[in-house]
Amino acid sequence: MKRKKKINSLYIHIPFCSNICPYCDFVKLIKNDLFIDQYLKELKKDLHNIKNGYKKFKSIYIGGGTPSILNCKDLEIILRILFKLKKINCEFTIECNPEDINIEKLKLLKKYGINRISIGIQSFNEKILREIKRDYQIDYFKLIKLVKKYIKNINVDLIYGFNGQTLNDLENDLKKFTKLNINHLSIYSLIVDKNSIFFNQGYKEQNEDDSRIFYDYIVDFLRKNGFKRYEVSNFAKKKKYSRHNLNYWKNGQYLAIGIGASGYVDNFRYRIAPSFNEYIKGKRIIEKEILTKDLMKEYFFITNLRLEDGFKIKEFNKIFKTNFLIDYKDIVSELLKEDLVMIKSGYFSCTDKGIAVLDRILLKFM
Ligand SMILES: C[S@@+](CC[C@H](N)C(=O)[O-])C[C@H]1O[C@@H](n2cnc3c(N)ncnc32)[C@H](O)[C@@H]1O
Ligand code: SF4
């Protein structure tokens, strides 16, 4: 019998949404029962191939789009297979939109071992929610209380930097978040990508100076409330870091299935083309990027330097059979002088000042 390969993480993309948010540039399409049937049929084939070719996973992440939009029958189709793919102590996450969460779904998720839920709240501000077409009336306090009965490990996604949003609005969002007593927050600055509705409407991203003021405010507020910023946009209490995402940021390998999903295996990174029509015909158009040593180094920096703890210099030296502090001597001393990076207990990482200008630092290593 052929030996099974070992990769620790698996991502599954569910592209359906009930409506399209104006800021979103993720691979998604409007929900339709026929499309869902066709998609799940193909996804099942990919999952079976994975079951036959790979060992069980330490982390599984069902993302979207909106996985929670699937009804219980459809969700169960994939959960039943995924249940067999997870290691006993696997971190098993699903992304949910708040309006989809109900007792029946939570029971189902728990039954199949989902132990982490990521809820896309985006903002608690009614005006902003209306602007991003997510103006449902939800009592978040009640909702989170209900979720906690079934799944303890919760993340909330928020976005900041909307037009007209003030620091006071941001403070209110953060205060409302902390009242929910949740141990993980992902908070992103609004990106207006050219594939989004906002872009076509001429919506402008927050300018750099304001964005910096908002970001510094967030970091300060969350630290005062006991959170560690362990990655640029991710904050956790009680070490409730996302194992799945940490694997990305530590430049670990992962499998990914579904349209538009990206993976990293052996010496290449790949993306499954975002074509629904091709996918349901059984075609998997895979865009591959072969990783040369230089590209591997670039990815290593891009991922690891997002982490507050950075990377272990010895590990870099081992992977690339080199000496980091000699190879990058001039860059490192210049960045140290500017107080943008630090070396502590054998780790190389960005300072607070450095994380705020991460793109500038990364350019130096490219
Ligand atoms: C893949 S999306 C999908 C999650 C889920 N469908 C939802 O809308 O909550 C994951 C997260 O990315 C963030 N996101 C999506 N588009 C963004 C944008 N243009 N700028 C900043 N954050 C964005 C949102 O916080 C969102 O919750
Ligand atoms: S933000 Fe979420 S719900 Fe909105 S369109 Fe994107 S994936 Fe769908």
- Please name the CATH topology of the largest domain: TIM Barrel
What is the name of the CATH superfamily of the largest domain?
Answer: Aldolase class I
The neighbouring-strand order within the major sheet is: 9-10-8-7-6-5-4-1-11
Q: Mind telling me the CATH class of the largest domain?
A: Alpha Beta
How much is the radius of gyration in Å? 21 Å
Q: What is the mean pLDDT?
A: 95
User: Can you summarize the main beta sheet?
Assistant: 9 strands, mixed
Which class of secondary structure composition applies to the elements? Answer: alpha/beta
> Kindly, what is the distance between the CA atoms of the first and last residues, rounded to a whole number of angstroms?
43 Å
Report what the structure shows:
The protein has 366 residues and is of the alpha/beta class. The protein folds into two domains: 9-248, TIM Barrel, CATH 3.20.20; 293-366, Arc Repressor Mutant, subunit A (Orthogonal Bundle), CATH 1.10.10. It contains 16 helices and 17 strands. The protein has helices spanning 33-53, 72-85, 103-111, 126-131, 140-150, 167-179, 197-200, 208-224, 243-249, 276-280, 293-304, 313-320, 324-327, 329-337, 352-355, 358-365, and strands at residues 9-14, 16-17, 29-30, 57-64, 86-96, 116-122, 153-160, 184-189, 228-231, 234-236, 254-257, 262-265, 268-272, 286-290, 311-312, 341-344, 347-350. Strand 4 (57-64), helix 2 (72-85) and strand 5 (86-96) form a beta-alpha-beta unit. The chain is globular. It starts with 8 loop residues before the first strand and ends with a helix. The model has no long low-confidence stretch (mean pLDDT 95). The structure holds S-adenosylmethionine (SAM) and iron/sulfur cluster. Iron/sulfur cluster (SF4) binds next to loops.
